[in-house]
């Protein structure tokens, strides 16, 4: 996965992606510590994830957490201005021990209401000491991004689109595992997968196989 890109490029890329085209840009990916020092999110607590149980996690208001976070881009905040339906926001929350803290970390994914395309992934770490609240220790606002946990590590995936691909049908996927080390998340041997364009019956999407006329 490549770094960088301006926030405006990410917004433009999302627009192209939702139109069914190649985004052509990477958007914003910020990896830094939660302090004022511009270092990615890995803490000096431990070089490996904590083995502590997440059974006693404290549920957080992820939507409010994102709205109050200055690291979250304007495009993502705009998508959270109102719920998709009733009181349901396009947000997924996972609690897992990734940074060696005493409390589970909070992984938040934000998607579009219409197509469930990922537009932002974040990791929040509980403040240590007397201070209450959470630090944003990972931010990725590339189009089609999604963050999760794999074998105790943060794993970030991003679907890739070739020109002409529909939103439903990406051409491949980039996957990057991260481990917590030295106060930040460090990339740990990512990989790319090209998806097969062949369906179960042997036809390729939109090739007209089986259609009448």
- The helix fraction, in percent, is 10-25%
User: Would you tell me the structural class of the helices and strands?
Assistant: mainly beta
The chain-level mean pLDDT equals 77
- Biggest sheet strand order reads 1-5-4-3-2
Broad shape: globular
Strand content: 25-35%
- In terms of quaternary structure, what is this? single chain
Model regions low in confidence, pLDDT < 50 over at least 5 residues: 1-14, 18-28, 30-52
> How many distinct beta strands?
10
Alpha carbon gyration radius? 18 Å
List the secondary-structure elements in sequence, H or E.
HEHHEEEEEEEEE
Please give the alpha-carbon distance between the first and last residues.
Answer: 44 Å
Number of DSSP helical runs: 3
Largest beta-sheet details: 5 strands, antiparallel
Region (Disordered): 25-55, 194-213
Protein name: Lipoprotein CseA
Organism: Streptomyces platensis
Keywords: Lipoprotein
Characteristics:
213 residues; mainly beta; five-stranded antiparallel beta sheet; 3 helices; 10 strands; 11% helix; Lipoprotein CseA; lipoprotein
Quick summary:
It contains 3 helices and 10 strands. It has 213 residues and is mostly beta strands. Residues 44-55 have a biased composition (Low complexity).
Describe the structure.
The chain is mainly beta and 213 residues long. The chain has helices spanning 7-18, 62-67, 74-79; strands spanning 28-30, 91-96, 105-111, 118-126, 134-141, 145-150, 153-160, 172-181, 184-187, 191-194. The strands form two sheets. The protein has a five-stranded antiparallel β-sheet with strand order 1-5-4-3-2. The protein is globular and about 55 Å long. Mean pLDDT is 77; it is low at 1-14, 18-28 and 30-52.
């Amino acid at each position: 996965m490549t770094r960088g890109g301006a926030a405006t490029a990410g917004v433009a890329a999302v627009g192209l992606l939702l139109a069914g085209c190649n985004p052509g840009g990477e958007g914003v990916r910020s990896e830094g510590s939660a302090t004022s020092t511009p270092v990615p999110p890995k803490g000096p607590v431990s070089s490996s994830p904590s083995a502590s149980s997440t059974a006693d996690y404290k549920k957080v208001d992820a939507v409010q957490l994102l709205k109050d976070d200055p690291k979250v881009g304007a495009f993502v905040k705009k998508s959270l201005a109102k719920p998709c339906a009733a009181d349901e926001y396009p947000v997924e929350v996972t609690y897992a021990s990734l940074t060696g803290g005493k409390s589970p970390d909070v992984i938040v994914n934000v998607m579009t209401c219409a197509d469930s395309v990922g537009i932002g992934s974040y990791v929040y770490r509980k403040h240590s000491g007397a201070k209450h609240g959470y630090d944003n220790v990972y931010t990725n606002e590339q189009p089609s991004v999604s963050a999760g946990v794999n074998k105790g590590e943060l794993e970030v995936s991003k679907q890739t689109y070739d020109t002409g691909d529909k939103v439903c049908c990406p051409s491949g996927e980039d996957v990057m595992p991260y481990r917590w080390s030295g106060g930040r998340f460090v990339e740990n041997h990512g990989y790319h997968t090209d998806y097969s364009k062949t369906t179960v019956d042997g036809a390729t999407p939109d090739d007209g196989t089986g259609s009448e006329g």
